[in-house]
Structure formats: structure tokens, C-alpha cells
Write a structure and sequence with these properties.
The longest helix is centred in the C-terminal third of the chain and has 19 residues, at 60-78. The chain has helices spanning 2-15, 23-36, 44-54, 60-78. By secondary structure, the protein is mostly helical. Helix 2 crosses helix 4 and helix 3 packs across helix 4. It has one domain: Diphtheria Toxin Repressor, domain 2. It contains 4 helices and no strands. Helices cover 73% and strands 0% of the residues.
């Protein structure tokens, strides 16, 4: 019974954690926002195009991760 309670605590703590992003994603988005902050909006689809234009990211998955993180940071800064 005690082992089940410990397992539940670990699982419930994991649910409160946020989405994990790599240092690459955070660093690149911070650099893009510092240099070209006015071009980013709170619209994900527009940010996808801006990220594609400003960076040399080759995969759609990474581009979408960058655009999503940029969108989140822009939304948080306007609140």
C-alpha cells in the first residue's frame, strides 16, 4: 500500500510540470525575439512563417516548436 502512495505522488507531481523544451529552442527564440520582436504576434500560423523566414531550420517539427514557444512568450508578455 505504501508503494502505491509513493507512485501516486510521483505521477501527480509529473502532471503539474510544464512542457519541457530544449535549450536550443529557448535560446534561439530568445535571440529571435530580441532582434525581431516586433515581427512576432500571438498568432501561431504567422509566427511559423516568421520563424521560417528568419532561421535556417530544416524540419517542420522544429519550426513549429520554435513558433509555438515564440507565441507563448509573446502572449505572456502582453498579459
Amino acid at each position: 500500500m505504501l508503494a502505491n502512495n509513493k507512485l501516486f505522488k510521483v505521477v501527480s507531481d509529473a502532471k503539474s510540470m510544464g512542457r519541457i523544451r530544449t535549450k536550443f529552442t529557448k535560446r534561439l527564440v530568445d535571440e529571435l525575439l530580441a532582434k525581431h520582436g516586433a515581427r512576432f504576434t500571438d498568432d501561431f500560423n504567422k509566427n511559423k512563417l516568421v520563424v521560417q523566414e528568419l532561421s535556417d531550420v530544416k524540419t517542420k517539427k522544429i519550426r513549429n516548436q520554435l513558433a509555438g514557444y515564440a507565441t507563448k512568450k509573446v502572449k505572456l508578455s502582453t498579459d
